[in-house]
Write a structure and sequence with these properties.
It is built from 13 helices and 18 strands. By secondary structure, the chain is an alpha/beta fold. It folds into 2 domains: 159 residues, Rossmann fold (3-Layer(aba) Sandwich); 179 residues, Rossmann fold, CATH 3.40.50. Helix 6 runs parallel beside helix 7. The longest helix is centred in the C-terminal third of the chain and has 14 residues. The chain is elongated and about 65 Å long. Keywords: Cytoplasm, Methyltransferase, rRNA processing, S-adenosyl-L-methionine, Transferase. GO terms for molecular function: N-methyltransferase activity; nucleic acid binding; S-adenosylmethionine-dependent methyltransferase activity. Pfam families: MTS.
């Protein structure tokens, strides 16, 4: 699925984890271009988030600190200590980057089960407002008496709305603007916290039934309450003859996988790859009751880093946008190259994409046969078969 990427981050981070460039995947003996390094653009919201502490407007606390939707970077390393900081991050490349640099990354369920309350809760809120409000409610609930919530967003990712929401929930003690971002913080809690409002907001991104109850989804997941037209086009032309071991790259909440299982009785196993843990949890829930003998495997994984098995077929609706809404065709190109590497000779890729995206060269270089199976509403459906003489 061409999903919404995480909130404002340097464009290069979406396809690269922790600044570590993976080895190129060869196709037809030629190296696929390496993913762009992450060292260049700075993470403006992350840098602005720590300005109140760097400038002396706020003291850094002695007690434990929690960072929700955490991202690694120099401002974090300069200010915080791994001994006192706990990070939560559901997007796999960012979680891996944090772990590789020594930060303690915990899942939401682990943090909720722990009785720890934090002297400071840092938040990089998402753009989706219901999801962001639920995150603010969690932040307040996890803050110790006398502690603060500090948040930052870029101006084009909902900063004014986020500031207004935290003001409504807790009252504000201060704010600043820098790097086209807005950083804002509460007074020491409980301050003016509205408990009833906090309870309502905490439920805003709870999983719920969508599409007449066929699926469960939640705000913040790509196309969370609908079937996007690109995926609908792929399903309309999905071959019912697909068989053997397949994969869904960028599976989202599981729509394409559910349709594969519903339409393709000869599938024996299906692997779902998804970088966003919140979406993968939904996919597991959405597929668990489907009556199909196929073995299902769920991978919280960055597809651009490679796959874990060889496949007879792959379906994909890959992401192609940066957080700044600019096109990043190299993300989809990387999906294609990774798919070619993971397909067995004679295996096929069925991929849907925006019509303008330049995928033809990598498709032609990676596959023995390539055709446009359908076009509609600005989308193109590609069917590609890996040559039988290709190297695994």
């Amino acid at each position: 699925m061409p999903r919404k990427p995480p909130p404002s981050v340097p464009d290069s981070q979406y396809a690269t984890a922790a600044g570590v460039t993976p080895p190129p995947l060869p196709y037809n003996g030629r190296p696929f271009p390496l993913r762009r390094p992450m060292a260049g653009p700075h993470d403006a919201p992350l840098q602005a988030l720590f300005l109140p502490f760097a400038q002396g407007a706020l003291p850094w606390p002695e007690g434990p600190v929690l960072f929700l939707r955490a991202r690694d970077g120099f401002p974090l390393r300069e200010q915080a200590s791994p001994q006192t900081l706990t990070c939560e991050q559901s997007f796999r490349p960012f979680a891996e980057a944090l772990e590789r640099n020594g930060w303690n990354v915990r899942e939401e369920s682990e943090i909720e089960a722990d009785s720890t309350r934090y002297a400071l809760v840092l938040v990089l809120p998402p753009r989706q407002r219901e999801e962001a409000r639920a995150l603010f409610a969690r932040a307040v609930a996890l803050t110790a008496p006398g502690g603060r919530v500090v948040a930052c967003q870029s101006n084009n990712e909902g900063a004014r709305s986020g500031e207004a929401d935290l003001r409504q929930l807790t009252g504000l003690a201060g704010s600043l603007t820098k790097y086209h971002c807005r950083t804002y913080w509460s007074a020491p809690l409980p301050a003016d916290t509205d408990a009833a409002l906090q309870a309502r907001w905490a439920a805003l991104d709870a999983p719920r039934k969508i599409l007449d109850g066929r699926f469960v989804s939640r705000p913040g997941v790509f196309a969370w309450d609908r079937i996007d037209p690109a995926s609908a086009l792929l399903v309309e032309h999905l071959p019912t003859t697909l068989a053997g071991h397949g994969a869904d790259l960028g599976a989202g909440f599981g729509y394409l996988s559910a349709e594969v299982l519903a339409r393709c009785p000869k599938v024996t196993a299906l692997d779902l790859y998804e970088a966003e843990a919140r979406a993968l949890t939904l996919a597991r829930r959405n597929l668990q009751d489907i009556a199909h003998p196929a073995q299902l495997h769920y991978h919280w994984r960055d597809v651009t880093a490679g796959l874990v098995a060889q496949y007879d077929f792959i379906v994909s609706n890959p992401p192609f946008h940066t957080p700044s809404r600019a096109d990043r065709p190299d993300i989809g190109q990387r999906f294609i190259a990774v798919a070619a590497q993971a397909l067995r000779p004679g295996g096929q890729l069925i991929l849907v994409a925006n019509r303008h995206l330049p995928y033809e060269q990598v498709l032609n270089d990676s596959f023995g046969q390539v055709r446009v199976a359908a076009e509609r509403d600005g989308f193109k459906l590609i069917a590609a078969i890996r040559g039988r003489g290709a190297r695994p």
